[in-house]
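Case study: Claudin.
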Amino acid sequence: MLALCLRRAQGGGMLLALLGWISSCVTTFVPLWKNLNLDLNELEVWNMGLWQVCITQEEGVVECQAHGSFLALPPELRISRLLMCLSNGLGLLGCLLAALGLEGWRTCEDKPGRKQQLLLGGGATLGMAGITTLVPVSWVAYNTVLDFWDETVPDIVPRWEFGEATFLGWFAGAFLASGGLLLACSSRATSTAMPLAPACHQRPAAPGLPGGHHLHPKNADLVI
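Here is what the predicted structure looks like once written out:
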């Protein structure tokens, strides 16, 4: 019963981790971090991502242009690029480590301690991937809110709002962190449920003779 619960917990953790990693990769590259609707030209919608800016027209035509220079970007976008790429790498590494430590795989079956270490390492790596996803998404969202409510900017000036990738990034970070936590907890439960190795029994000593002398095993059958 305990083994079945452990497998279900590990399966749920891996499913959350994979969903979070895929969502994080999509969040990194889609140009939907910010949206801008122009009141003067309602036929165009501007979308901004970490790598490019796109304009969607009413006819469905989408025109995208990459950011000119990495150094010319705002600090939050520059650091968000690095953190999101780091999150994608950590998520992939965490999924591979955790997969090798699952109960259903035949890897390291003769070394249960090694499987526990792989599962724990994978869970910790996935947790770090979740944090490195939540930090840049939350930072960009925070600056978007500050710019939106900036009273020094005239009301006639259009303002950026949250894009779909912002919410997807929050879900991705939560999935990665939750999956890593489940996998790490299941590794600790695996160690407690692991059966103990049988104790080594010593060969009984040969019967002793009066006077404190002991018989050699070869001569023990001579004394009756």
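For the exam, be able to explain this: The radius of gyration is 30 Å.
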